[in-house]
Amino acid sequence: MAGSDTFYDLVIIGGGPGGLSAAIYAMRAALKTALVEKGVAGGQVTMSDEVENYPGFIHISGAELSMKFAQHAQSYDLDMISQEVTVLDPGLDYHTVKLANGDALKTHAVILATGGSPRKLDIPGERELYGKGVSYCATCDGFFFRGKTVIVVGGGDSAAEEALYLAKLCKKVYIAHRRSELRASKILQQRLFNDCNIEMLWNTVVTTIHAGKDGVERVALKDTVTADTRELDVDGVFVFIGFNPNNELVPAGTRMNADGMVVTDEKCETRTPGIYVIGDLREKFARQIVLSAADGCTAALAAAYYVEAKKSMQADTCELPPESD
Question: Residue 288: which pLDDT band, with cuts at 50, 70 and 90?
Fold first, then answer.
């Protein structure tokens, strides 16, 4: 059990695919490692009904994939702590991870794997139908909607890019945007308008998502100008209105982009030596399970090198005897 005087080589904060992958590589590198997760191991992946793009598994549920990640990590006798982290306090000699129960873990290195979450519409049916027609990732779930009709909610670059991706797979793609013009870049807008498979629904918001026997069946729409309402038959709803990184524990002075994602080097290391950021919290091209796992591998290997180098320096440090009179 961890206590207030527990010292680790590495503390991993977050138990999603990135954090669990980091734990596997850290334990194999013989680092004394703790993984702290306040919820269920596996992160948001556990909420996905189907995963078909993780190498080695043609078809697997998110919950089962998460369980396999966790079982693999625990097979090395990983110290898993079910607690919330309240503070990450970086230091020169060591870093301190403070827990909600009052314990403080001292460690040479920290891997932040706290991820983030897509912004929600917060409308009836959204939560209930997540994974059953409601999605926040077209590249993850678009495959399941081949030949079907979907609606994309949003007006930025992400919404445009995902709509263009879905248009290659789906019979029809609607884009609902609350305004009369998009925020997406001009070149993306041009591609949208030139795609005969995409139809714009201007000044439109989705107010309710209705279920059928197989999942999403239709949505209720409202005109933001006239307040008129109507319903539209769709098989899926893809929401792209932003992403909220869980960056509350990121130390002050850490470089972040305009969206709150942490900017790291190729080793996933921040400006603070020994502190690494991986997964959806890190600035990168795409958010996928396999990329988070890859980040975990990279950061753990880098942390192992850092810890061994630090221990070697400490072992080589000695005090000279006092000079005799």
Answer: confident
Q: Give the residue ranges of DSSP H helices in the chain.
A: 17-28, 62-74, 138-141, 157-167, 186-194, 289-316
Cβ atoms of 15 and 80 within 8 Å: the answer is yes
8 Å CB contact between 51 and 78: no
Partners of 152 in beta bridges: 175, 238
Half-sphere exposure of 62 (CA within 13 A, CB side): 20
From the list 137, 157, 195, 297, the catalytic residue is 137
Catalytic residue among 49, 77, 122, 141: 141
What's the whole-model pTM score? 0.77
* Candidate list 9, 79, 140, 268, residue with the active-site label: 140
- 108-117: pLDDT as tens digits: 999 999 999 8
User: What's the chain's average pLDDT?
Assistant: 93
- Is residue 141 annotated as part of the catalytic site, yes or no? yes
**DSSP string for 185-239:** -HHHHHHHHH-TTEEEETTEEEEEEEEETTEEEEEEEEETTT--EEEEE-SEEEE
In whole angstroms, what is the distance from residue 316 CA to residue 117 CA?
45
Tell me what the mean pLDDT of segment 247-262 comes to.
Answer: 95
Alpha-carbon distance of 111 to 133, in angstroms, equals: 34
Whether 297 is a known active-site residue: answer no
